[in-house]
Every structure is written in C-alpha cells, then in structure tokens.
Design brief:
The protein has about 200 residues and is an alpha/beta fold. It contains ten helices and five strands; from the N terminus they run βαβαβααβαααααβα. It has one domain. Helix 1 links the parallel strand 1 and strand 2.
C-alpha cells in the first residue's frame, strides 16, 4: 500500500542554509539516508557571516522554496557584542524573515552530534566548538570541522547507527525547555532536532 502524504504539494522543496561544510555534509547525508520523497537542498553560502547566511535564506524563500531553514552556531556571535546586536536585530525582522525558520545551536551544531552519545542528561556548559570537540572526539575518532575529514564519513548515518537518536532528541528537547527559563546567555541548547522532526513530519 502506498504511503499517504499530508500537507505536501507536488515538488515540495526545502532549503537548509548553513554556515559551513559541517552543516552541508550532515544534511546532505540526512537527505540520502532518509530517502525523503521531496527535494531538500542543503546550501553553503560563499561567506559564513550571519548576514550572508540570512540573506541567502531570504533568497531561497523568494525563489519559491516551500520551507527554508537558517542554521547558525551562536558561539562566535555571542562573544562579539557588535555581531550579537546585529544578529538579533536581523533575526527580529518579521516581514523580511517570513517563511524562514531559525535553527540555532549554542555553542555549535557539534553539541547535537555529542548528544547522540550521552547516556544521562547533562546541562554542562560548553563555551565554544573547541570545548565540545574534546568531548565529541572521544566517540568519533579524529573528528574535525574540515572538508577533508567530513568527506571520509557519512556523518548522519554514523550518528544514527553508533549513537542514540531517541536520547539525543529527548536531551535536546529538555535543553531547549531549560534554556527558555535560564537567564544565562551561553546556556547550551540546539534546535537541530526540531528541524529534523519537522522535515520527517512532512514525509508522513
């Protein structure tokens, strides 16, 4: 029996705009592994600054993509007062950002990867990529945020098979709930799980 699809018109298109090779490889591998019945286009802007990323997301929206995700790491943004002020000003613009879903991680997307290997919940704070990398490398040998490394592995499949997606999702959900109640600007959280859940719900 053929699967029923809901809330999806023919040729449904999703754009995921990230800031680097890590996001591009991860979401490309996700698309291939999950075999979604609609088009997903991971996009890698020429520059990784938040202005270029948001501008690219708006362009994808204007090109007719049905759903556009803007994926950003906050560690660098929050450490620079000028950049932080500029980012939140751009993010708050409702009309220019209509149809765009902001997916943030603090400190970075690697927090989401690391959650796949945790056995019990922890809200330990990691301030930047280097700190979370020290934890992640214990589970993914030689992990590095470089194209030469990312080309060697299927990151999405590795996390699914070697880690625990169910626990990672529950930990990320709990972090997001605690983040809303915290006044600590660098409280760790990630919304990558919300992006994946939203995409999977479209394919049901």
């Amino acid at each position: 029996m053929a699967r029923k699809t809901k809330y999806k018109k023919p040729h449904f298109r999703i754009a995921i705009v990230g800031e680097g090779e890590t996001e591009w490889y991860y979401f490309t591998h996700m698309k291939l592994y999950e075999k979604f019945s609609f088009k997903i286009e991971p996009s890698l802007p020429k520059h990784s600054d938040f202005k270029t990323i948001i501008k690219t997301a708006r362009t994808k929206r204007d090109q007719g993509y049905d759903l556009v995700f803007c994926v950003l790491d906050l560690d660098r943004i929050l450490t620079n007062s000028t950049e932080k002020k500029g980012y939140f000003r751009e993010k708050s613009k409702k009309v220019p950002n209509k149809g765009i879903v902001f997916i943030e991680s603090m400190p970075c997307i690697e927090l989401w990867f690391y959650l796949h290997f945790l056995k019990t919940y922890s809200n330990k704070i990691y301030k930047n990529y280097n700190e979370i990398k020290c934890e992640l490398i214990k589970h993914i040998q030689y992990y590095d945020k470089t194209e030469s490394f990312l080309k060697k592995i299927n990151l999405y499949e590795l996390l699914i098979k070697k880690g625990d997606y169910r626990l990672a999702n529950s930990f990320a959900t709990k972090m997001n709930e605690e983040k809303k109640k915290s006044d600590n600007e660098i409280f760790n959280f990630t919304k990558i799980n919300e992006l994946i859940s939203q995409i999977k719900s479209i394919d049901k």
